[in-house]
Design brief:
heterodimer; A: 138 residues; mainly alpha; two-stranded antiparallel ribbon; 5 helices; elongated; B: 244 residues; alpha/beta; seven-stranded mixed β-sheet; 8 helices; 8 strands; 20% strand
Chain lengths: 138, 244
């Protein structure tokens, strides 16, 4: 059920990203019961669906956060302060570029959405999704 | 948490709204993902040499001190930017998407995402001009491959195949090439944006028993977002000597 909801929630994302999230959700479907058992929890069918949904969402935020980290690191040159940015193809990428700012804003909005569901900024692992669903039941 | 807090249906409209409003950002992200990953892999390699005590210099920057990234096998390396690292009279050039000859002298050439070559290699290539066939295999000290994928067994097998064709010493249970440890080079490395699939981490755990001298870095972007490259660099083999 929640994979259907997840599919519905991300249907406007680019195909590659959508498939990436759904692949991860399929992986979570397989391993969530075992991971929950390792945490001393037993998931019923409905809880497992919710774990899949939240894990997919956390994965999407993870991908965005990771890309933001890469682009910020790349644009500021990291170990070499001489470098002021990148040129990829015909496009220049500097720390203040509109794409970088857009990524930051996107990350903030995803954080806010997840916080509204009780998910902290630091949550990112499958175990966080399991804990979230288990806590909502207790 | 109250039960409604973990109700997925409450989040769907918000997520759809974000997906629509940030459509261009998401599309750009997908398009740039591979090039940024390759450049970040280059920075990881550079950071490793910095950690080993090398001085780092950027070369051939374009106007505005921008690093022009070579994002594919097309184009000549001297038309793009690269990094140079120097320590005690020894120096190396690091660049992305470098064409190199395989180890088996069968005419095979391969494009590695990040190559480490002795300084002067790009100048020699430039002297050959359009006839430049790719760097000689002996010029390649080590390399990095990057993938924006989950690390699953077939990806590992592909990486081992690349290492076998280009730098077989690292997968034949042999000693590392002479000078490899002395010069602070790292073993051939795969960096991936994804994590291990359910069985892949077990396979990698057995690599030392097979004599494979390789680094597999997973969740690269997440690692970067949680700090710096330093943590990853210090885990790479061979281990760097502790700084006194």
């Amino acid at each position: 059920v929640s994979k259907r909801l997840l599919r519905e929630a991300i249907e406007d994302l680019p195909y590659v990203l959508r498939e990436n999230v759904l692949d991860y959700a399929s992986f979570v479907e397989d391993v969530a019961p075992e991971r929950a058992a390792d945490m001393g929890l037993e998931l019923d069918r409905e809880q497992r669906d919710r774990v899949v949904f939240f894990a997919g969402l956390l994965h999407l935020r993870d991908v965005v956060a990771g890309q933001l980290a890469l682009v910020e690191t790349a644009a500021r040159g990291h170990v070499n302060r001489d470098v002021r940015g990148l040129r990829i193809g015909n496009e220049d990428l500097r720390p203040g570029a509109s794409y970088v700012q857009g990524m930051r804003q996107l990350r903030r909005e995803l954080d806010e959405l997840l916080i509204s569901a009780g998910v902290s900024r630091s949550a990112g692992r499958l175990s966080d999704a399991i804990e979230l669903v288990a806590a909502a039941e207790s | 948490l109250p039960p409604q807090k973990a109700d997925p249906s409450r989040l769907v409209p918000g997520l759809r709204s974000i997906a629509r409003r940030y459509k261009t950002t998401f599309e750009t992200m997908v398009k740039k993902r591979s090039a940024l990953l390759e450049y970040a892999a280059l920075l990881l390699a550079v950071e490793r040499y910095a950690e080993a005590g090398y001085d780092v210099t950027s070369r051939n920057l374009v106007r505005g001190r921008l690093f022009r990234v070579k994002t594919s096998s097309n184009g000549h390396p001297w038309n793009f930017s690269w990094y140079e690292v120097s320590r005690s009279g020894r120096s190396f050039e690091l660049l992305t998407n470098a064409k190199v000859a395989g180890d088996f002298q069968d005419g095979g050439t391969y494009v590695v995402d990040v190559a480490v070559l002795p300084t002067g290699s790009i100048a020699k290539a430039r002297a050959q001009g359009r006839a430049f066939p790719g760097f000689d295999n002996h010029q390649l000290m080590t390399f990095v491959e990057s993938k924006s994928l989950t690390v699953y067994p077939m990806l590992l097998a592909q990486f081992i195949g690349i290492a076998l064709e280009i730098k077989p010493a690292f997968v034949r249970g042999l000693r590392r090439p002479w000078g490899h440890v002395r010069d602070g080079h790292f073993d051939p490395t795969l960096v991936a944006l994804g994590s291990f699939s359910s069985t892949a981490h077990k396979i990698v755990g057995h690599y030392p028993t097979r004599g494979y001298l390789l680094n597999i870095v997973v969740r690269f972007d997440t690692e970067v977002s949680s700090g710096s490259f330093g943590t990853i660099v210090r885990k790479m083999s061979p281990q760097l000597p502790a700084v006194p």
